[in-house]
Structures are given as C-alpha cells and as structure tokens.
C-alpha cells in the first residue's frame, strides 16, 4: 500500500510510501507535511529532512511548529485576518491518493464549508484549495492550487512555510535569493521578491535544489536565540536546528471568479 492512514500525535494523518522507500507524513489538520524521508541507499537508515519542534502542539489546538505549514489566505500579519491565515489550522479532506510514475502521492482539499464558522465569516469568499504532495527517490514535490468558485474577486497570499532540518544553522548557505550567498548568523526574517531561478540550499551536510513556480517570492526565517526563547512551542535551543525557506506569493494577488492560481515547489538533490 503506497498510502495508509495513521495517527501523528493525536492527529489523523496519511503516510505516503513510494516503492523506492521514500516517505512523507501529512496531517489532515492543516494539510501539514510533518515528515519527509527521502529513499535511502540499500541498508542505510532513512533520514528525516523536516524539523519538528519537541514542543509543538499535535492535537489540533494550535498550528503545528515544524514541517510545512500551508499559509493561506494571508501571510504573517500582512492583513486583517488570522496570522498566516486559516489553512494551517483547518481540517482538510483527502481528495485522492495512490501511486503514479513510481511516486506515492496524496491530494488534500479545503473549501469554505470546511472552515470554522468564525473563519468562514471573517473571510467570506467561495474558494477551493487543493494541495498535492508526492514523494519519490530523493525528491519532494508539492503543488498548491487556489480556485475562486464564487462571484466576487478575492485577494490572497500563499506560502509553503518549509522548516528544513539542519544540524547547525550557522553552517547553512543559501544561494539564488540575492547577489551574495546568504548565511545565518543571528535572527533573520527576510523577504526576497521576484525569485528568478532555483535556490541552492547547502544545509551543512547536503546540497539541495529548491525550485518554485507560481510562488514569486521567498521568505527566510530563523528566530535566533532571543525570539526562540519567547516562542511557547519551541525549545530554547531548537532554533539551531532549522531554517525556514518559504516559497511564497506575498501579493496579495487577486483571483477573479472562475480563476485558478497554481504554485509548485520541488526539493531535490543538487547534482
Ligand atoms: O509563529 P508563526 O505564526 O508560525 O510565524 C513564524 C514566522 O513565520 C515567518 O514566515 C515570518 O516571516 C515570521 O515573521 C514569523 O515569525
């Protein structure tokens, strides 16, 4: 079976397992990818690629701290709505899952009818989201589709807020965001607009290629020691073990009635 239902913490989740051994786990709460393990060489243990805070809530009471939160329809506090939007704290439905071209995949959906009454009245637009996740070999592919199925245009922002697991954040080097290679020596929360090509991410152990389309921007975030200490759902030292590199459409963009926006994202080894 390439896709099975499991519990992650106290949350129902899908475990995707490709024939080559690549794995991913996605909770229905937030359509949140909480674990990704690329296929390992024969006999070698599969290695986790996603950071997950030891103190993260895993019961649906608040957003999960780690993995890949889906950010929609608002980025951070750039708007009047819920910080980073409601998608990460809503429960999605499974639309499809299985195996295709050697990859295990799942598609999860969210629409107006799935929202809490509070979220639905605060953002009263008829929308449909579909998140497709596929794993195969050393590659993770994600695609987020936003549809306007109503009669009014709506504004939105979207991001896949990826928490990459690293051994030491100071060893990280990121190229392709700006003219110089980016290193993280302290707290960093920076927006890079108009990402033109692939991002080269050296996590200190491996070199990865991050490719995005539809998502025009990227955000890099690490809270550093002081901000991490102030986060209730992150251990004080955990900031050393991740960097968020987030493909994003900060916009806000406008989607007309009948319109579809699609953002794609792929993580693969840089060869
Ligand atoms: O604590 P949250 O809501 O998950 O946000 C985490 C971070 O997410 C990043 O995307 C933002 O750029 C930061 O400003 C923010 O602190």
From TrEMBL:
Keywords from UniProt, A to Z, are: Isomerase
Q: Which residues form a coiled coil?
A: none
Q: Which domain of life is it from?
A: Bacteria
Q: What is the native source organism of this protein?
A: Massilia norwichensis
Q: Which reaction does it catalyse?
A: alpha-D-glucose 6-phosphate = beta-D-glucose 6-phosphate
Protein's name in the database:
Putative glucose-6-phosphate 1-epimerase
Question: Which Pfam families is this protein grouped with?
Answer: Aldose_epim
Q: Which InterPro entries match?
A: Aldose_1/G6P_1-epimerase, G6P_1-epimerase, Gal_mutarotase_sf_dom, GH-type_carb-bd
The record's comment on protein family reads: Belongs to the glucose-6-phosphate 1-epimerase family.
Provide the E.C. number(s) assigned to this enzyme: 5.1.3.15
Q: Which PANTHER family match?
A: APOSPORY-ASSOCIATED PROTEIN C-RELATED (PTHR11122), GLUCOSE-6-PHOSPHATE 1-EPIMERASE (PTHR11122:SF13)
Give the enzyme's main class according to its UniProt record, as a single word.
Answer: isomerase
């Amino acid at each position: 079976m390439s896709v099975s239902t499991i519990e992650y913490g106290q949350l129902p989740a899908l475990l995707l397992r490709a024939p080559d051994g690549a794995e991913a786990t996605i909770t229905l709460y937030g359509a949140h990818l909480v674990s990704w393990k690329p296929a390992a060489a024969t006999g070698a243990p599969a290695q986790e690629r996603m950071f997950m805070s030891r103190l993260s809530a895993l019961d649906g009471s608040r957003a999960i701290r780690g993995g890949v939160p889906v950010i929609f329809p608002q980025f951070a506090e750039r708007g009047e709505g819920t910080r980073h939007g409601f998608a990460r704290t809503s429960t999605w439905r499974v639309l499809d899952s299985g195996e295709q071209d050697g990859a295990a995949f799942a598609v999860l959906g969210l629409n107006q009818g799935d929202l809490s009454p509070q979220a639905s009245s605060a953002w009263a637009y008829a929308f449909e989201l579909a998140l497709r996740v596929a794993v195969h070999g050393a590659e993770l592919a994600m695609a987020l589709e936003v549809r306007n199925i109503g009669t009014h245009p709506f504004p939105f922002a979207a991001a896949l807020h990826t928490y990459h697991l690293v051994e030491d954040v100071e060893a990280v080097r990121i190229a392709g965001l700006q003219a110089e290679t980016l290193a993280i020596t302290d707290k960093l929360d920076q927006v890079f607009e108009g990402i033109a090509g692939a991002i080269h991410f050296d996590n200190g152990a491996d070199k990865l290629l991050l490719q995005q389309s539809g998502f025009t921007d990227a955000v890099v975030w690490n809270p550093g020691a002081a901000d991490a200490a102030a986060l209730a759902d992150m251990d004080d030292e955990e900031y050393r073990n991740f960097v968020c590199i987030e493909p994003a459409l900060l916009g806000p963009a406008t989607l007309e009635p009948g319109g579809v926006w699609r953002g794609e994202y792929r993580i693969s080894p840089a060869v």
